[in-house]
TrEMBL record:
Listed EC numbers: 1.1.1.37
Organism expressing this protein natively: Faunimonas pinastri
Entry-linked PANTHER family: MALATE DEHYDROGENASE
Name of protein: Malate dehydrogenase
Catalytic activity: (S)-malate + NAD(+) = oxaloacetate + NADH + H(+)
Length: 326
């Protein structure tokens, strides 16, 4: 990899996810241990002082790879010439809310930032949307950046993927990285579908190793879908370090590859798997040489079809709710 500095925009820099994310990026966890980075940090005017405090802490870590930090409340300044963008900044939910309840508060942010991305970013920049509801916010961002490649705008379902991997590994008595071909389909919401149908461990089918279909349907799927809520109830605030870690995993694999394994990414649908074109839906992808390819031809029948249709139905409703911004 070249040693020219990579510019990375991060929005919501004063927030709790970024309090973990920024330090990991500066440490080289995204672009690698030989790649210098510059951070372009965006937050609201009233949060600028808090961002300055975070930057003091970044300085105090003396990260050898961190070459420059910009602090701004102007999206165009933040997205100027970026190689990658982490779109975290937006309101989190509190107890009793669903992520889709955030749509009215957060959708406008992504319309404005889409226009700035369109004007300022490099055309090959890689973008991940974390701010909820992440899938539909990513669709709004892409729709408002017509000259920026939609394929480079993605949303995060990797946290759900990682959550499921740990539960599956515990149940099967294997290591998380031994599980291959697992995927989370659809929306980052309670309708998401954690699909073990094709998952394998050393060439053996994971459903056969675990051998407990009711655990899969009645425990694994709902627990993964409700994990964000469980964390809010336990912590009094939504997940932060694990969300930052998932964003790092998503971007790291997109840049460096997924070693032939499936990872879950929400990308703009090409119409395959019965997902209407343009919806940002979690699908299995394989990352290689700095890009991702959808895994094609995965059989989706019976229970899996019902689950996929349910989450796609919800994404379709969310798209209708924000049609004025698209
Ligand atoms: N996709 C996923 O798996 C996950 C998504 N999230 C979502 O990530 C988002 C951020 O979460 P936290 O960091 O915990 O929230 P937080 O409230 O701690 O931080 C949010 C930050 O965004 C800033 N912000 C708000 N509007 C902005 C704008 N227009 N431009 C730039 N910055 C802006 C705020 O000032 C604040 O500093 C929330 O929407 C949360 O629901 C959280 C966990 C997982
Ligand atoms: O649940 C939330 O609001 C935060 C989030 O998206 C998650 O932890 O999955």
């Amino acid at each position: 990899m070249s040693n020219q500095v990579k510019r990375i925009a991060v929005t919501g820099a004063a927030g709790q996810i970024c309090y973990s994310l920024l330090f990991r990026i500066a440490n080289g966890d995204v672009f690698g241990p030989d790649q210098p980075v510059a951070l372009q940090l965006l937050d609201l005017p009233q949060a600028q002082n808090a961002v300055r405090g975070v930057v003091m802490e970044l300085e105090d870590c003396a990260f050898p790879l961190l070459r420059d930090v910009t602090i701004t409340d102007d999206p165009k300044t933040a997205f100027r010439d970026i190689d990658a963008g982490f779109f975290v900044g937006s309101r989190p939910r509190s107890k009793g809310m669903e992520r889709r309840d955030l749509l009215s508060a957060n959708a406008e942010i992504f319309r404005v930032q889409g226009q700035a991305l369109n004007e300022a970013a490099k055309r090959d920049a890689k973008v991940i949307v974390v701010g909820n509801p992440a899938n539909t916010n990513a669709m709004i961002l892409a729709a408002n950046a017509p000259d920026f490649p939609t394929a480079n705008v993605t949303a995060m379902v990797r946290l759900d993927h990682n959550r499921a991997l740990t539960q599956l590994a515990k149940k099967a008595g294997v290591k998380v990285d031994e599980i291959k071909k697992f995927v989370v389909w659809g929306n980052h919401s309670p309708t998401m579908f954690a699909d073990w149908t094709h998952a394998e461990v050393n060439g053996r089918k994971l459903p056969e190793i675990i051998g407990d279909d009711s655990w899969y349907r009645e425990t694994l799927i709902p627990e993964v879908a409700r994990r964000g809520t469980a964390i809010i109830e336990a912590r009094g605030a939504s997940s932060a370090a694990s969300a930052a870690n998932a964003a790092i995993d998503h971007m790291h694999d997109w840049i460096h590859g997924s070693n032939g394994d499936w990872v879950s990414m929400a990308v703009s649908s090409d119409g395959s798997y019965g997902i209407p074109e343009g919806l940002m839906a979690g699908v299995p992808v394989i990352c290689k040489d700095g890009s991702y390819e959808r895994v094609t031809g995965v059989p989706v029948d019976g229970f899996a079809r019902e689950m996929l249709d349910r989450t796609v139905g919800e994404l379709t409703e969310e798209r209708e709710a924000v049609s004025a911004l698209l």
